Amino acid sequence: MTAVHTAPENLPDLPDLSDLLDAGGRLWLQAARAQAGAQQPGWQLRFAEAGRVCGDAADAARVLLLAAAAPQPATLTLLYRQGTAAERRAVLTALARLDVPADDGVALIEDALRTNDTSLLAAALGPYAARHLDAHAWRHAVLKCLFTGVPVAQVAALAERARGDGELARMLRAFAAERTAAGRTVPDDLTHVLALTAKE
After folding, report:
1. Which pairs count as long-range contacts for 40-45, CB under 8 Å and 24+ apart, including other chains?
2. 13, 147, 153, 161 from 10: Cα distances, Å
3. Residue 140 near residue 110, CB atoms below 8 Å
4. Confidence of residue 10 (pLDDT cuts 50, 70, 90)
5. Is the per-residue pLDDT at 8 higher than 80?
6. 46, 32 Cβ separation under 8 angstroms
7. pLDDT surpassing 80 at residue 5
8. What's the mean per-residue pLDDT of the chain?
9. Helix (H) / strand (E) containing 122
10. Going along 23-175, which residue ranges are E strands?
11. Can you tell me the distance from the alpha carbon of 49 to that of 119, in angstroms, rounded to the nearest whole number?
């Protein structure tokens, strides 16, 4: 089963944080985006600093900075590897907006899928993963969502990639049988995804 190609231009517009930041935060973000866009030394420090300055809007602010900077894969990987969970989440969210070769981007996604951090799992399964993650890895990612309680609504292009996927259906039925045998409930999301696999 091949990946579904979701064009970057179909992504929602970048967020406007004007109403979420105070005057100081707005000025900081304007300057930080300009610094990132010009690739001025130290813009990566603004990426880390966003958590302190932007509060609840830090994730969106970091995506804005990455979109402005359009960093090289090596820089993006460094930001991810050295970042906090929140900074890693922003890198994963921004992948679909950046021109990142599949080998580099998928490596970051696969790293996130090895964790049990549900916020990273959800961020990893955005449009970039829908385009580039191979069928085997994608199926196991869906199962991990079911296992960890990440809503499958977070999985980009779920209906398109699940449609007619007999191997995914087999894996879902096996997982459901294991749950039932253990006296545990079968998640509603599993039933939903299984129904998607039956569609042609």
Report:
1. 43/69, 44/75, 44/79
2. 9, 30, 18, 17
3. no
4. low
5. no
6. yes
7. no
8. 93
9. helix 118-124
10. none
11. 20
